[in-house]
Amino acid sequence: MKSSKQLHLTTISRGWRVRWKKMNKNGGRTNVGNDPSDVIEEVLTASFGSRQCSLVLVTDGSSSTASMDSVIKNFGVQGGIGGVFEVIWDTADDNLTMADNPWMIQQMQMIKKTSRCQTVILVSEEGELLKVLLRQIHENELLVWPTKLIAVTHAQVSLFSPVRKEILSVTNSVLVTLEGKPELKRCKLLLLPSWTTRGLQLNSHLPLLPNKFMKLIDGGQLRVASENYPPHVTLEEMQVSDDSGAKRLSYTGPMLILFDLLASRINFTYSLVRPPDRSWGIRRPDGSWTGMVGMIRRKEVDMAIGPFGITYIRAQVLDYTRSMFVDYVRVLAKRGRSEVDPWGFAMPLAPVVWGSTFGTLVVFLVVSAVMYFTALERTGSFGQTVLLWVILTFVVVRCYSGNLMSLLAVRYISQPFQTLRRVEQDPRITMVWEADTAFIQTLKSAQSGIFHDVAEKESVGRFKVISSVDYSSTIENDVMRGDHVLIVEDLSCKMLLADHFTKTGTCEFYLSKEMFLPLTFAMVMQKHSPLGLAVNERDPRDATRKRPQRENIRG
User: What is the average pLDDT value for the chain, to the nearest integer?
Assistant: First the structure.
């Protein structure tokens, strides 16, 4: 029988002694005595789905390390990826945290990076030590939803009430509490009892570690951030019927319909919260975040409807749902007035055609002169050349006259801003963007190129940001004067043009031909949120048409 290969990596600091053992998948069964290894092995057998996952075991030394090694080796983790850690706690120091000795956390993070999935087993007789371990593993993002956690202890369940709500209830975890003396082999599995002489017995149709967020049995109340983003989300202020003079916010739009269907399928209700700064969110130089992204980052809300542009910098602090659509940015500008162009006579033919015509004329005159003074005139070739020139001239004249007549029937309207570079080069024009969006983050982080040049115009007063609720007023006032352009998403531009035509019956604006800054859009949630799997695996088309109750909160 082979034993595990021990590495000489031992750290002692303020009462912590951490010994790491590299797992060896070879080895036989060891007599576990009074250790809870048989309980762990039963739980592993019932919950461990893939042999490709890694196993990490942390014990306080009260159980035989050899027996813990034996459990893992007998379970047969493919490739032997994982580790066994032994932690001894100085109970005299109540303020001890793993930050004093981050070595074990670093090793666990390394194991996590080298495996597709992970199961963490915590074994401790001391309830306080187990709580510290749970908090530190969770704070270092080791206890994400794909990670399965098995915590085994002799402490009372009531001791874990705080961590049950904060950690265990929102992670893929099971708490096993051993009652009485270890040799009695009696235990309780939180929510799913019990342990008998025949081994693990599940008194429920659910698996040992169910995906409890696919369908919330008891429901739930989520706080969801949302902001005006036509046509996806339309926000209106409505007067309350009483005499208080207060206003309530009304949210409508296809994104709200989609979210209602998801809420119906997952079985939760939600309240809508508006961000205080009315923005989506960018990262400040000090590392903090504004807008709805900041609310997600600070865990003030569970989700945000958006939809949000998917960027790498945002993905570091939040999670996205499945992508919904792709949109581009365009320039919305004021049309020029109908006018007579003094050079209109040249417009029927393109510059290339004009150049070719004059070039052919010069060549013809030269060739004619040469032929006139040579014997070619007497052979009749000169007459054929003149005939060919007459036919060519007739075709050009007919094309010119037809196009000229068409142009005279429709007056010329100037639409100069067809590219972002053309806007940036015009010193009379102020560019208006939406504040604190992914596009603004791109402009401010650009080191060169057109986007850097556009961002530099802020220093000379040609770069302005507004909230999405100010789109209509900006168009009717600033853009209408002709010295401002609005630069937003293509779908929003078309929505604004349609609304303006509905109100006025006129087409005063146009969109640029150039489309730039493409982004994929999706909803967002807290980093490592267990709701991500539930939302991404849902098909809202299968949902019932009954909508859950939602509450609008004045932001």
Answer: 75
